[in-house]
Amino acid sequence: MQKKIIALAVAGLVSGAAFAQSNVTIYGVADIGYNYAKQGDNKFSGLQDGGDVGLQGSRIGFRGEEALGNGLKAIFTIEFGLNLAQGQGTANWSNTRQSFVGLTGNFGTVKFGRQYAPSGEWLGATSANSVTSVNFSNYFIGSFTTLQTGNGSRWNNSISYETPNLSGLTFRGVYAFHPDDNSNVRDSYGDASKDNSRLGLGVRYANGPIYLTAIYQAVLKDSTVASGMEGDGSDKAWAVGGSYDFKVVKVFANYVREKDDYAFDGLKKTYFSLGAAIPVTSVGTVKVELGQFKTNIKETKSRGGSIGYEHAFSKRTTAYTYVTRFSNDDNTGLANRGAARVGTVATAGESQTGFAIGLNHKF
User: Fold this and answer.
1) What CATH number is given to the structural domain containing 174?
2) How do 198-207 and 108-116 pair as beta strands?
3) Higher pLDDT residue, 21 or 196?
4) Position 19 in a domain
5) Is the residue at 33 inside a domain?
6) In this predicted structure, what is the pLDDT of residue 34?
7) How far apart are CA 344 and CA 335, in angstroms?
8) Fewest CB within a 10 Å sphere: which of 69, 239, 267, 322?
9) Structural domain count of the chain
10) In this structure, are residues 348 and 335 in contact, taking their beta carbons and an 8 Å threshold?
11) What is the DSSP annotation of 47-116?
């Protein structure tokens, strides 16, 4: 009888330990490079963080999970942006990246907090170059209010649901209440569930050499549209894209369209790109991309391209170099990240050239 009681007590302790088990991982990216940029008569030369000219923005993060039993887990991620060139956190060490908590299990995953919209998580894989490098597509997708792949692709005050992976097929939905949550903003915006709220829906298929995604996102309505603006505050966009790996070359393509009634009634923006990643050695890859952005306003077209080389010293350490070139119409002033550091930023009609060489390390 005594042995049975001891056995039951041990089993209870083991079971309790299993339920209490929690794993926390510290991870991050250190990315910095030299950048030269020229826009008209203005030039820039200096070091910049990877978020401006590299493969990825530097960061440090903490992620963890706790087994709750029956396949259910609690998960969290807290991630901070860094600027290696200046030796500080981005935005004065405020949390500029993800911060969420959620539950995951056989039903899928539910998360609450600041997290990626479908475009920020899935659209970058349809571009030959990294979404935050000196690549071509980032600057044009980045000009979209709802589908930008930069900081705006992480939504505050958001709730998301993602299905389990169904033989490569995944669905994701995100709803974000008004992106700010202090009392002054709430008073000025009124109903935080409607004013400036955002909706994102996405589907992705990733299986073997095939990657495909389709995304719809919208700023539902912003009642704070400035006086004199013709729009009603809504901003809707959709995107499709994909890639296919032929082994000797991996090809990429995407198309984005946005109807922006926030800045100007009926303003329509379109963007597309074509790219390729070509392995030239077992550790070296050449990446090229061409793209075009335009609106339905006369002489607002921008064209350009990039060519780069990435050399993987290991799975965690990669050296890179890129050259980009932009050509803007008379009414278009899009700037690449390098040219954004030049004195005159995004001058309409100005051509821009950028060069970067740097090192990316993941830990």
Assistant:
1) 2.40.160.10
2) unpaired
3) 196
4) no
5) no
6) 92
7) 10
8) 69
9) 1
10) no
11) EEEHHHHSSS--EEEEEEEEEEETTEEEEEEEEEEEETTTTEETTTT---S-EEEEEEETTEEEEEEEEE
Span 51-110, pLDDT tens digits? 877 888 899 999 999 999 999 999 999 999 998 988 777 655 565 789 999 999 999 999
Question: Count of residues for the chain?
Answer: 363
**CA 83, CA 86: separation in Å to the nearest integer?**
6
Token pair in block for residue 343: 């004195």
Which residue, 126, 82, 32, 33, is CA-closest to 323?
33
Q: Residue 20 domain-assigned? A: no
Give the three-state DSSP class for 335.
coil
Quick one: how far is CA 303 from the chain centroid?
22
Question: Tokens 């550091």 label which residue?
Answer: 341
Which residues form the domain of 214?
A: 46-362
User: Distance between CA 252 and CA 257 in Å, rounded?
Assistant: 17
Please say whether the beta carbons of 171 and 162 come within 8 A: yes
Do residues 296 and 268 make contact, with C-beta atoms less than 8 angstroms apart?
Answer: yes
Domain membership flag for residue 26:
no
